[in-house]
Amino acid sequence: MTTNATVTAASGRPLRTPKASSGPPIELRHVHRWFGSTHAVNDVSFIVEKGEVFGYIGPNGAGKTTSMRILSTLDEPSSGDASVDGFSVIDDPDRVRSRLGFMPDYFGAYQNVNVWEYLDFFARAYGLRGTERRRAIESTMDFTGLDELARKPIDGLSKGMKQRLCLGRTMIHDPSVMVLDEPAAGLDPRARIELREMISRLAEAGKAILISSHILTELAEICDRVAIIERGQLIAVGTVDEISGCVEEEITVRLRVTNDRASHDQTAVIPWLSRHAHVKTVVATKEGVTFHLVTEQPQRDATLAGLLAELIGAGFGVTEFTSRGKSLEDVFLHVTKGRVQ
Amino acid sequence: MTTLPPQNEMADAAQPGRLNRWLESAGDRLNPILVKETRQSLKSRQFTLWFVLLLIGCWVTTIGAIAMVGPSIYYVSAGGYLLYVYYVILALPLVVVTPFSAYRSLSSEHEDNTRDLLEVSSLSPRQVINGKLGSALLQIVIYLSALAPCIAFTYLLRGVDLTTIGLLLAYAVLASIGLSAVGLVIAAATRQKYAQVVMSVGFAGLLFLAYSGLLAAAAAVRGWESRWLHSEENWWLHLALLCLYATSFGVVYTAAISLTTFTAANRSTGLRKAAFIQQAFFVAWIGGAVAAGAPYDGVFVALVVAAVYWFAAGALMSGEAPLLSLRVRRSLPTSLLGRAVRSWFSPGSGSGYVFAVCNVATLALMVVIAVYSTAIPGNFAPAQTAKATFLLVSYFAAYLGLGRLAVDGLRRVTDMSTLGGFLIQVLFALFGSGLPFVIRTLSERVRVADWLAITASSPSWNVPRVLNGELPSDVEITLLIAVGAVAMAVFLVNLAMAGYEARQMRVAIPKRVLEDDRELQPEPESRVTNPWGDRPEPATEASR
Ligand SMILES: Nc1ncnc2c1ncn2[C@@H]1O[C@H](COP(=O)(O)OP(=O)(O)O)[C@@H](O)[C@H]1O
Ligand SMILES: [Mg+2]
């Protein structure tokens, strides 16, 4: 495996250093996109800085692909604008294209082509010539670990290898901005870890990386910041910690109390809980009652223990009392829930 | 192809030989698509299959012919017949297989989602189309060279001269390239799955039609007498055909490029220029024919052809968006003269309408001048021809303009594709034109000809009657004034709207873009400045 320095020199020329006058590597300004009456992207704005990995999280159909395609000049915004290194995707698509690597969520295979030929084609397509092209292919294959497979037909590659090849194709012209649409989808855990590692190294080499997923946990470790999008709207932007911060004090507790007529008693516990100072959003579920406990981090355990004692003291037969701190999934669910309707 | 060995060999080949270096830089200059497709087709079964079939076909034919003719091969001249058989075999891969594989190779870019990857790369649409056409051309060359020995054999057998062989091969090659370009246009225009299925069936049908057409043409050429084959008329005819082919190819080629171009870019100026050039050649040929003594009535027929042509073009152009993207506006002309002339080449539906009308009006003017200035009598009186010309142009401006307004109105309500707009325009014109004929067929009792209100909408009813002077003079005058007035009004309304487009001023190119241009295109290398041929020291990496 190469070091980051080699990544920088992937195509034999130094990484573009954005000038002071140029804009941020990635900027979306009030982007809207309508498909007929579907508002696929609704007023999305954000900026990604140099060397930053920016996670773009949202459920399926949230509008991630659409906004990424707009940024990659494959689609046009209905209104608003996006820019790469200060160049508008509407007005200077050619300049955007030479600076940007887009990895769509599909492979894009050609028949009867092997790995080396595939990379060679894209290197040529990006205008790399002679030595420069050979060096770019060489270091890309090195970086993605494809060098042993150079002569293998691409139809025969495994999913993980195909994904590496896609990444290689995306970085072959040494773009300063990379847009990766759900790169980790469908990968086995090992391949996923390797992919994350490669992405981190690309970011260390100074590239701005926009990466999407419908699973926050997939990206949490490598992303400097994330944006959460649902139904076309951004509902939170910030570091994973900042976003988690919104739900900092909440602990989810699942509770079941026993009785012959279970449902009756579950409903009895609800008003009791609702009156409790630290308890929020009590919900009756099939399996019992779920509620959030609001508390400061240090007193968390004490509060929990106190609450359990109070419950028993109040005469409820507690059969289950499970508490769960915030997981990233919860953060995601919490942030997306009920905000956009 | 230059299949460069991958990295390992390059390390030690630090100082490649001159030939190597030359091969490499030549390989670099090749179109990327061409390189890729050649690599692919060398490995593909389909290409190998056709190639082997072609060879087998040739061998069987040759052996069969020799066996049949036997020893009399020295006396009979079987060359012509044998050539035709070879031609039937050769034309199949050329006219059917090659264009279809060009079509497939572009439409499979849509299916396999590689179209997007090409689009985000630095490849220009022109390079994509050139690459696809280039690989079609390469296939043609390969098929031809496989058959070359056989063709030479037919020449040795006598009974066929070189001109015929050359002509037949030229037909096949031109047909193959032209149809490949048509295939690329169709592939670029259809992006939906179901449309692709319909289109590939339709295109295959078209190719087989072309194949049989080509064979028929070849049979005719084979039947030509030597006197006609080498006559001057024949060369003029072929020159005209070649001219028609070349200009049409230009239009088709530009259309393929336009259709693969980013939507916010300027997709229409190139196409308009190609159409304009084709028209210029058309005018030159008609002019030449008149000067050479053809009857001037032909001029009017030519005008009708041109009007139909520009109607189709105008209906397509009015499907363009009236708002120009910033990127297009940066390239708008600034000078007064530039604006007056080039605005109509700039994209936009209004400018497209004005462009089409101006073209037809200019042609009409030429027709009138031609009619009054030639001495050779035709079938129609010059005055009637002039009136019919005026009527035709008026109908043209009115129909195209009303259709454009309708499409423009509908656009505000719903989304409409260019094809949709085109169909609306054509149907509208056909309806107005066919109305009197339909009424005449439906009812015997209505004397349609007496009702100007019914016939007034129909150019195909009125123009021939005016030309022949069949209408009573009061009806004729009323008709001319009415249609002329409607046309004028429609034209003015459209012109006002086009004026809005034309007023979209050129916008300044942002500083950032200029900077980048400079960065991408460094100062041109300084030329030799003294007679001794020294150059100033080139700037080194470090000093930059
Ligand atoms: N070409 C299109 N035509 C119509 N609707 C589309 C098109 N592309 C996307 N959409 C719609 O836009 C919304 C967002 O889609 P997408 O951006 O693909 O979501 P994501 O990538 O987040 O899963 C979806 O409702 C989808 O149906
Ligand atoms: Mg998606």
Automatic annotation (TrEMBL), chain A:
GO MF assignments: ATP binding; ATP hydrolysis activity
This protein's record includes keyword ATP-binding? yes
Residue stretches making up the ABC transporter domain = 26-256
Listed PROSITE patterns: ABC_TRANSPORTER_1, ABC_TRANSPORTER_2
Concerning InterPro entries, the annotation shows:
AAA+_ATPase (IPR003593), ABC_transporter-like_ATP-bd (IPR003439), ABC_transporter-like_CS (IPR017871), P-loop_NTPase (IPR027417)
Instruction: Spell out the SUPFAM superfamilies in the cross-references.
Output: P-loop containing nucleoside triphosphate hydrolases
Region (Disordered) spans which residues? 1-24
* Keyword line: ATP-binding, Nucleotide-binding, Transport
The organism's superkingdom is given as Bacteria
Which SMART domains does this one have? AAA (SM00382)
Instruction: Keyword check for Nucleotide-binding, yes or no.
Output: yes
The record ties this protein, via PANTHER family, to: ABC TRANSPORTER, ABC TRANSPORTER, ATP-BINDING PROTEIN
State the family named in the UniProt similarity comment for this chain.
Answer: Belongs to the ABC transporter superfamily.
User: What protein name does the entry list?
Assistant: Putative ABC transporter ATP-binding protein YbhF
Which gene is transcribed and translated to give this protein? ybhF_1
UniProtKB/TrEMBL annotation, chain B:
Q: Where is this region: Disordered?
A: 517-544
Transmembrane portions of the chain? 47-69, 81-103, 136-156, 168-189, 201-224, 236-262, 274-294, 300-319, 352-376, 388-407, 419-439, 477-497
Taxonomic lineage from the root: Bacteria, Pseudomonadati, Planctomycetota, Planctomycetia, Pirellulales
Keywords for the protein's UniProt record, in alphabetical order = Membrane, Transmembrane, Transmembrane helix
Q: What organism, scientifically named, is this protein from?
A: Botrimarina colliarenosi
Protein name per Swiss-Prot or TrEMBL: ABC-2 family transporter protein
Compositional bias (Basic and acidic residues) at which positions?
517-526, 534-544
